[in-house]
Amino acid sequence: MWLRALLACGLAVPLPLSAVTSQSFQVSATIIPGCLIVGGSSNYGALTYGSHSALATSTVTAALTGGVTLQCTPGVTLSMSVDGGQHSSTGRNLQLNSGSARVAYQLFRDAAFSQGLGIDQSVNVAYSDANNISLPIYGRLQLPGNQPGGTYSDTLQVQLTW
């Protein structure tokens, strides 16, 4: 009987299986397109028309300089819009810092001043180097020749989307 029980147990012992020595697993990542604002400045730059005589009536132009640059994932669509500024009751205006006199100005998105940049108008920002993108903002104003002397200024808000 003992032999029978031993044989019964022996038959119940599992036989060794072959070990799996190679197997595969999945690896993946999702890269989300976007942009990064580079630079420690708290503003996107300055549009400076310079100093001119209070009697001047010439047209003055300027380009956005300084400030930050952007880096974007290659192929991402970057767009911007610029508000009307602090003195925009009748369009964009520079206002005398110590008074209420104003000088109107316009913004453009090209150096030839042929593509206007309207108030809150969303426009695409073209770039050739995704690691060094500057905002294409250009300004033009007609000096009126009859405003009080002093410093005129405005502050604009830029909205970037991608």
Automatic annotation (TrEMBL):
Coiled-coil segments on the chain, per record: none
Signal sequence region: 1-19
Top-level lineage group: Bacteria
Pfam families membership: SCPU (PF05229)
Record-annotated Spore coat protein U/FanG domain positions: 23-158
Keywords: Capsid protein, Signal, Virion
Keyword Secreted: no
Keyword Signal: yes
Entry protein name: Spore coat protein
Species name: Pseudomonas extremorientalis
Lineage: Bacteria, Pseudomonadati, Pseudomonadota, Gammaproteobacteria, Pseudomonadales
